[in-house]
Each structure stands twice: as structure tokens, then as C-alpha cells.
Amino acid sequence: MTRGEKLSDAVQYEKIETLKRDLLSYINQNSEKISSNLPVFFAHVISALDNGFSTIDDAAHDEFIDSIASAVMEKISSGGEPEVIERIISNAARCKRKSSSKASLKILAGIRLLSAGAYKESLEYFGDYWRYDCRIGFYRAFCYYKLSSEEKSRTGGKESQTGKDYEMAAREQLIELVKVKPPMYRVRQVDFITTPETENAFWFMIKIALWWFPTERWFIRTGIQKAKKDANDEKRMEMLNIATVRFYNDLDFLREAYHLKIDTKDGVGANGLVKQMMQQHPESLEPVYFGIKLALLTGETSSYNSYRSLAMEKGMPNYLIQLLDFSFFVMKGQETEAFVHFNDMSRRFKSLKYYLSPLEYLAKDIFSNDDNRAVPAKRIFLESVDLYAVKILKIQ
Question: How far apart are CA 171 and CA 144, in angstroms?
């Protein structure tokens, strides 16, 4: 339950989700019946929604209709027949409260048609909606590129003006994406239909974009963003391998690569990136802190002391160094040293009491010899100290 959400809101949400699951099950089992009488089916949907949830707000109401329409498109128009798609859009749109809500249905139609290989028709539905979510822009570029490839196949591999025009349109779409830099995940309906074809379209055009525009960082950043959201470490690593070679002194990419190494527990690789960051940005405290963080995770005393000395030389605030020392003792399991250091900190830095008090409680749980308390406490302790250090050092 989110902050500020009433219990009744949570109960209503669960009931709406139950209704959605029931309708999706019905769609899967009765696709032919639905296809033959779409108006009756959508009348049933709107009746069930309005009778059961009359107080639902307009946005949630229309999004529910979108999700049902998406499932219907997927089930009864697997071949991407435009006339079937148009019938679904027409019937679903009449169920919506907002007269302008046809846009989301068109986006869903474009995705369904792309997945079915109807690229020209897909472009008509996507329109300019790419300005609101960059994924739609990559889908449009993919459609143009596929039309170019199909034209080349039709002419036996020979170049034609039509094929060149389609390829140029794909290039121009990518150029427009870089100019506008639309956000990702702004149009929630894009996630209603995720198919192997849409995933391939996105990553294929990222690859093409990096080939056509090798100096453009935005494509790599966009690929990294999607890979992280999808928990796709393979694609994330692929993007970062390209980034750290082409833009070897870009701290943003080096930082991302470091975090990936930490996430995949590659201490050697993370340490190598720390060294690289220090070489490229010798004036920055950020790579020094990353070295300290790595030492906290690995428990290597010599490494910690080395990075600690560098932190002192480069002017890291003393209270932060002392806090990291306390954290290192805690992570190493050195209870006596940890609390001796903690008591000294508490006397010297009274203004930090607001933060040191909860850390003390966590440290006691860590040393409690009760794994049910110690394991989560250790994770929370380290995450908290990391967030605090990042804030103090103004690390992005």
C-alpha cells in the first residue's frame, strides 16, 4: 500500500485486478465469440466496471479499458489485420470517459501490427506519439528499416529509390529522437503488449543507431536505462562495454559500469574501474569513495586503508571518514572496535546524533548472532551509509 492510500483504495484496487484477470481469462477462452460480436463484449466490460466501481477515476477507468483492448488485439488479431484492429479501437473508444483517449488505443494497435509484421500500417497508428515515449520512436524507426529491407528483397538486392527513402526515414526518426530526447516509460500502455518482436525492434535499432551515429551518447544511455529496468544484465553489460571503449573518460558511463560490477559481485572488475576513474578524474572524490565502498563490501583492510588515506588527502570531510571507519568495523564483524569508535564519534559529532542513533540500533542487530535480524540489518546499514555518503559528496 502506498503512502496516503486508504485501505478501501487498496481493497478496490485488488477487486479491479480480480475483474481484469477474470476478463483476460474469458478472452483467452472465447476469442472467436468475442470477435464475432465486439460491441456486446465491450458492453459487458463497461457494465461490469461501472456497476462494480462507479467511483473509479477517469484515468484508471480508461487504462482498464486499454488493458482489455490490448488483450483482445493480441488474441483475435494475431495476424495484425488492420480492419480487425480498427473494429477493436472503435468499440473500446466508445467505452472510455475521455474523448481524447483514442491515442493510447492507437499506440497499442501500432505495437500489435508491428509484432505481426504489418510495418506500414503500424507507422500510421504510431504517428507522432514517439514524442511522449522514446520506445515508440525506436519502433517507428524499426518499421521504416524493415520496409527498406523488404523493398531490397523485392528488387533482388538492388537499390531502389523507395528502399532508400525508407532507410532515410529510419535515420531521420533516430535523429529526431536525439533532438527531442523523449522520456522512456511515460506511456504506460506500451508495456501492455511486450512481445519478442517489440524487444527485438528496440535493441536492433539501438544497434543500428550506434552504427550510424557512433558518437551519440544518448542511444547508449537509453539502452542502459531499459536494460536496468528489465534487469537485463547481458544488455546492460553490452551497452557499457561499448560506452567505456568509445567514451573512456565519461564519468557517467564509468560510474554505471562500476555499479554493474558491484551488482554482479565482480570485485576485480570494480577495482579496475575505480583505478580508471581515478586516472581520468584525479581531482574527484567520487572514485576514491567507490574504492572505499568496494573495500567495505570485500572487507579488505589494506585496500580500505589505502583509499582512506587518499580520501584524507583529497579533503573528504572528517566526520564522513569517521562514519566510514565505523562502518568498516561493523562490516568486518569487529564489535568492540566498532562501538569504541561509535562512542568517540558520538562525543565529537553531536550534530550527527539524528543519524548515528538508528545506525547504532542496526549495528546491535548485526552483532546479535541472530541471522534473522543480522542479515537484513547489515544490508540496510550498508545501503543507508552509502546513500548518506553519496548525498554528502554530491555523487550523481
Answer: 9
